[in-house]
Amino acid sequence: MNLILHVLLDAAVIFGLAYLMPQIDVKNFGTAVLIALLLGLLNFFVGWLIRFPLNLFTFFLLTGLVRIVVTALLLKLIDKFMDSFTIVGFWPALVIALAVAVAGMLIDRSAPTPEMVESGYVTYLLSYLQLA
């Protein structure tokens, strides 16, 4: 469920930034979902190969910044393979990568912890929200 939420949120961020920034062009929301899926797969399978040497070079002090730059590079790679998605320049790709990282962080922070589930707080909160 969390994976589906991340993909949809990433797609919404990409599609929203394409609406706001003239340097980014996405054909439709289905294309944005495909971009988000490809970005997740590339980050999982290829991203660590790029991130690891860069993190070694920075002594693991700039891990978050390296992750954002690698995500921007992967977005430019996706841009090269897809006709219905274009990014003009590297800076818009960096903005998308930063926005996707912030949105993912907000989703991960709002997820209930195992302690919340075990204590019954989540069940109480859900039952309260259904009654309201």
UniProtKB/TrEMBL annotation:
Name of this protein: Phage holin family protein
Residues passing through the membrane, by range: 6-22, 29-50, 56-75, 87-107
Biological source species: Spirosoma foliorum
Annotated Pfam families: Phage_holin_4_2 (PF04020)
Keyword Transmembrane carried by entry: yes
Alphabetic keyword roster: Membrane, Transmembrane, Transmembrane helix
Entry annotated with the keyword Transmembrane: yes
